[in-house]
Structure formats: C-alpha cells, structure tokens
Write the structure tokens for this entry.
Amino acid sequence: MAWDTVLYDVDDGIATVTLNRPERLNAWTDQLAAELSAALDAADADDAVRSIIITGAGRAFCAGADLEKGGDTFDRSARPADDTDGGGRPDAPIRLPYDLHKPVIAAINGAAVGVGITYPLLADVRIVAEDAKISFAFVRRGMIPELGSHAILPRVLGLSNAADLLLSGRMISGREAAQLGLASAAVPAGEVLATARAHAREYAAAAPVSVAIAKRLVWDNLRPDIEATTRRENPLFTWVGQQADAREGIESFLQRRPPAWKLSPARDLPSWPTAT
C-alpha cells in the first residue's frame, strides 16, 4: 500500500505507520489525516497484523497543524464552500486509535505539538524520546485543544498536572512526560522505535481476540467522557478558530513576536454547548 504522506510496513505481525512529511516536521494536514486513517483501517482489517505502531519520519513526530494558511489556519469560514476536509479540525473524519481492535503504540521520536500530542493521547501506549519537545500549545495560538483532550488528560495525569499543561501550553521534555505519566517510557531518540517494537511483540504474542476485548474494556469507561467532551469541544473549537485571537496567535508565532490578545473572558465568552 502506498500513500503520499504516510509510510506503511508490516513485519513480524507489527504494522508500522510513519507520518512522512519530514520537511514540514510531519505537520498535520487534511491529506495526512485521511491517509493515516486509511492506513490504520488497513492494519485493523489485516489478520496478519497483531499490533500497530505510529511514528514520525525524520526528527519530529508531528509539529501540529500545518500553518501554511497563516492566520486563517483554524478559521473554517475562510475555507472555500467545497472544502470539507479536516486540517486538524476536531470533527475531521479521522480514525482514532482507541477505536481499533488492536493495540496501538505511539512511538514519539521527536517534537509532538498540538494535534501531534492530542492524537497519540488516544493511543494505548506512548514511548517517547527523552529529548522530545512536547506541548499542548493551543492556548498559545489563541485556540483550544481537541479530540477529547479535556476529558482524557486529567484521567492520565491527574487534574492539577493536566490543568498545568492545558492552561499554559508550556513545553515539556519527553523525560518530564514520562515522569508525569504521559508516556510509558522515555528513552534515547535512537531507541524509540526499537522500544516500541519490543512492546508490540509482547502484544502480538497474546491471543488477538482476548487482546481486543481487554482493550475495549480498558477504554469503555473513558469513551463516554471523551465523546461527550468532544461534542462540547467541536463548536467551541470552531468559534475560537474564527476569532481575532486565533489569527493573532498564529501570526505572532510565525513572526516570532509576543502576541497581543484581543478577547476578554469578562465579555467575549461564547454560549456554552451541551454534550448532546
């Protein structure tokens, strides 16, 4: 199988899906989201595949949404009427790792920012390079996290640690990510894929139906909260993406200057969506 933005390889019962835009630090695009989803569907449907690894080509895992559109990156109203793809949008039709029958390991070999960390947050296991730079950077770009992050991150890290990362957007190392519990292990960058494969072989040696049932049970208690939170996040993500702060967050980042935020929580908050 061949795609333009992902590589796909199956060996010894392990499917390795590699985000393959190294010249852009594997930044997330509509095409990458669609091709990643197709690759994961292929792996999940293949009985020869017993476990799945997602990693990145080059020195990054995924640097977040591609900012080629500048300040319009997250503004859906700026898109052509026939543009229905995702581009990092939370409602993009992407395959989520927790929905698969097989274990999914995120082998975070380098920078993981924005959707580059919220997406692997939905994998079963994360192995990270010790020196990887990781950030839920959304609030520093005038945006909010997506993919149910507000529900799952407090479950993974505890309320205080999750709030610290989500409210600040600060950068942490892979080593700190493992200390917080965001990753199962932090290893030297050159050992990330080998460590992930060692885990994948352990899962591949187990009975596949038993593994699928165990995975479903692990996620069943989390899914309602994640899905309800995502239904709230989506309209808020859309609204925030159309505001001046989203444009300012991207433009100030690209221009390497401090942002000058425009909105006030005292007067500019939107109506709160329900989860239904």
Summary: The CA atoms of residues 112 and 134 lie 5 Å apart.
